[in-house]
User: What shape does this take?
Amino acid sequence: MGRGGNRVSHKAPVIVQTLITIGRGGEDNRVSFEKTPKGNAKLERYYNKILGLGEEEQAEFWAALKRELPNSFRFAGSKGHALAVQRQLVTRYIPEISKISHYDGTLVEPPQSVPWYPDALAWWMTTPKNVVRKFPPFSAFQKYLVSETSVGNISRQEVVSMIPPLVMDLQPGMIVLDMCAAPGSKAAQLLEMVHRGEEQRVHQSLRDYATEDGRPTSPGVGAGADLDEAALADTSDYGRATGLLIANDSDYKRSHMLIHQLKRLSSPNLIVTNHDATLYPSIKLPPTPNNPATNRYLKFDRILADVPCSGDGTTRKNVNLWKDWTPGSALGLYITQVRILVRALQMLKVGGRVVYSTCSMNPVENEAVIASAIERCGGLGKVELLPTSDKLPLLKRKPGLKIWAVMDKAARIWETFADVQKDDEENGRDAAKEKLVQNMFAPLPGSPGSEIPFERCMRVYAHQQDTGGFFITILEKKSEFRAKPEVESTSDAPKSAGTATPKFENSGSSVAGVPMLDGSLNGLKRGADAVEDREEQPSSPKKFKSESESAEVKPEQESVEVKSEPEFTDIAAKPVTEITPKSVDDAQPLVRSQHPPVQQRNRAGQQFEEPFKYIAHDHLEVKSVETFYRLSPRFPRDRFMVRNAQGEPAKTIYYTSALIRDILTENEGKGIKFIHGGVKMFMKQDVQGEGVCKWRIQSEGMPILEGYVGEERVVRLHKKETLKKLLIEMFPKLSGDAWKNLDEIGERVNGIGMGCCVLRVEPSADDDGFQERIVMPLWRSLHSLNLMLAKEDRTAMLLRVYNDTTPLVNSHNIGGKNKQEVREDEAFKLQRDVDVEEDAIMEEAVTDTVANSNTLGGTITTEAATELDSSQAQASEAEPAAE
Ligand SMILES: C[S@@+](CC[C@H](N)C(=O)[O-])C[C@H]1O[C@@H](n2cnc3c(N)ncnc32)[C@H](O)[C@@H]1O
Assistant: This one.
């Protein structure tokens, strides 16, 4: 439940992004932006020809693409909670900013809400950065942004990048896949949608059972968010969200950025995987009493395919694109994009939807990909393009293109593929035309593709509402299909310039061929199909086949019978690490190993992932937790998990949803690279006191668990002044009469048994009361109390709730206490642990970030920059020495 409640800690680090970003070589981005020449003759010639903009609009289009982008951000978390943080912007900061005037007397424009974003949760500001730097109200606002970003209440995100999740019609309870998810801004939006309404539902359920279970509930929970029927409908698990988001990225380092981004949402309904999306493995489901089939595979209600692209819609942030853009990038990425989309459509449930998006305006990466994928999946009878005109009515957009020409690597523009073929005949095929295929061009009149209603696609251009450029389409699966191999499709197979053996353009770092090894029936069939295809087409066409294509020739069934059990078992048993097929031919004889899967280290030498082991509901440690915290019978005991091979709770106990438990258990050792799953629920604490539970509740698990903790371990707080004391004084004393200084909670905390408890900050209408609910772990030791928040979270909260920057007080450092005595003090140790955990996470994030920045040769300053850097990296991999 509750990613709601004021989010305070359980913070995975965020790369704190200030409004003033630093560019390569430590240079202020603004300076480097201004200095960088903006223009690319080929790009301008191509888009002037194909986008169909009039002369005046063309001028606006290019002018906008050459301006720096407004800063934008989004309030994150559950809706009620996000609105509470947003209120501070509206009531505290905007009034102050609105008073500032420029030297000429004109007023500074304060941040504005993005008109088409629901509930005014997205904002942008055009204020020049020198103004932001100079004026105190801005610096207070900037502190607020940085501090809220660091605890995950605000996400910096380019506004156009917020569109794809908004058009997915994602409802609670749905099974969702984000195929190319890093760094994770859209995945964060999706995850919030998976949890929509959960806080209200859970508290309703707690209220429903309050009398029966003898547990009082808190007032004011879930207030402020009006929920539709769909959000209220996910009630089967006492209101806890039953949906699932799998966020995937093929780049290992970037997938760790993704984890950090998503961890802030503390979701037990999230899995992160690290696979090449063109070969995304089938995920097996266990048999259930209602569905006893032994070979059921996960199918998705919604899939986001925000694919790697040339990124020419992001020149406003990635100014170097002006010089780096080449027409070869789109040509090189096209085939990967088609494969990702076809794989997405295969993995959908009938009636499910894929949203395909790019931050490029090139039709080769957009309409052409849509047309190719629809054709390979069997046409419009199998896959429909849904209208988008009813989505986000205030968003200005253009329809998709119906006709377009293609620019080759030498910047020649071809109107039709027939022209290319004619030129081939006359002059031979040169390297510049090498990648061109029929399907990159607009469908021929009268062909089935010409029926595709491309006008339903959304093209968002920079000048329309001062954003970057983006392309978005919604596809719905009408029925199961058997996808055509590329070679059979009208022509996705590139013509060779003589020497070119088509390269498998997997830009990711995943192990090619994994789906054949994932233990799934689909994997087995793919192998078999690949053999058949080879036999039918023994010579030249074979070279156009890729691993992904051979992996995509069978429709997937919700439940399919295994016909060849031994073979299946062998494939399942083959460790992924041992097999790195270079071609389809290499990929065939995979059925060899009898060894159980041992995945010590993957091919790229990446870190070993600890296994996910669930512990029994009656395990001694589960029992100890249950007894100490007087857990309600409504809280499940069979979803606790640890990350070690022994399956014994050593340091941390995690918690996941039931579906994730089933998935992680069923697919263990089958080669699927799960790299994150589960919320830290309990951490082991070295405690002396008799009867004190050694498992303290971890901040990130607190919102999930707190409603089910018995009153015996709950402390309720109502006054702002009391919380302020707990925030500033890190170890308030209880001994003697000292507890009396803690006002309303003094008596309660003095009387409560030692160990971890739940501090519930309850909302009230009092002047000194809170408007929203906050829940935090509190530790009662022999002589003192400790709010279990890392120092920086305390500071952030002081700023947020009290607009206060008072330094924290550590009474252990004053009064000449013996150092040894201090070190041994339980509360002190605890605070140290909390801080050390935070530091470790921060360090990991920084390391990942630096590593990533080095790999990509770019700066990690904005979400869009991060997206683009990767796209460029991929574009250049796919298209070496294009020009
Ligand atoms: C445009 S970015 C995605 C941005 C992301 N959706 C977001 O909102 O933060 C494209 C991502 O695709 C990943 N990628 C590239 N090739 C891939 C492949 N074959 N399979 C999966 N991911 C891939 C890149 O590592 C990159 O992170």
Notes: Residues 161, 179-186, 249-251, 254, 276-278, 306, 308, 336, 506-508, 867, 870-871, 874 surround S-adenosylmethionine (CB under 6 Å). The longest strand covers residues 348-358. Residues 13 and 840 are 10 Å apart (CA to CA). Residues 1-28, 495-600, 841-883 have pLDDT under 50 and may be disordered.
